[in-house]
Amino acid sequence: MDFLLRSMVELFYAEILCNPYANKAMIVRRVALNSQPGKNDNPVAENFRVEEVNLPDNINEGQLQVRTLCLSVDPYMCCGMNEDTGSDYITPWRLYQVVDGGGVGIIEESKHTNFTKGDFVTSFYWPRRTKVILDGKSLQMVDPQLVDGHLSYFLGATGMPGLTSLIGIQEKDHITAGSNQTMVTSGAAGACGS
Q1: Which of 162, 158, 132, 164 lies closest to 145, judged by CA?
Q2: For residues 191 and 165, what is the distance between their CA atoms, to the nearest angstrom?
């Protein structure tokens, strides 16, 4: 996981967010899977590549053009890098296609009745692109005030890892408010302490 995290973060931040030309016009940068590391091998930067592609000039009804602000890098992503994910609920990433995961962005253009320009949105299936056109049905609106402006929290403590932890505590550990119970939680085993 450490190699995957470093590889994707280095590529995205160094090649995309820090590049002054990355968000100009309708050319966007994206991260694609360049090669598969192998089931038991650690991911390396060479498993990914950064590409420049054209973003369509217009969007259809029900779609939004969104600028990417934050991306998650989670342990489950290692499974998606190979054809055999080892799981029935994780879809493998396709070679030479954009990789995805949790993301947060701001709407720059909307043709969806529930979203307007300037809204912040999140999705578990966010393509690794500087700007993206998404179907509004795949998005959830988020309020930055709920996390004191720290949008990345929607990908962690108040996102999928936090929700998984909460459900685990409530449904599996049967922890209830006001009870005389002691619980020890360790995050050393993964994003959700699994």
Answers
A1: 158
A2: 9
Torsion sign across C-alpha atoms 144, 129, 162, 187: negative
Length of the chain: 194
Neighbouring CB atoms inside 10 A of 152's CB total 16
Q: What is the pTM of this model?
A: 0.76
- Could you give the CA distance from residue 192 to residue 152 in angstroms, rounded to a whole number? 16
CA 163 and chain centroid, separation: 15
Measured between alpha carbons, how far is 34 from 47 in angstroms, rounded to an integer? 5
Task: For residue range 72-108, list pLDDT tens digits in order.
Answer: 887 778 888 888 888 888 888 999 999 999 999 999 9
**Do 79 and 85 meet the contact criterion of CB atoms below 8 Å apart?**
yes
In 34-72, the DSSP E strands lie at 48-54, 63-71
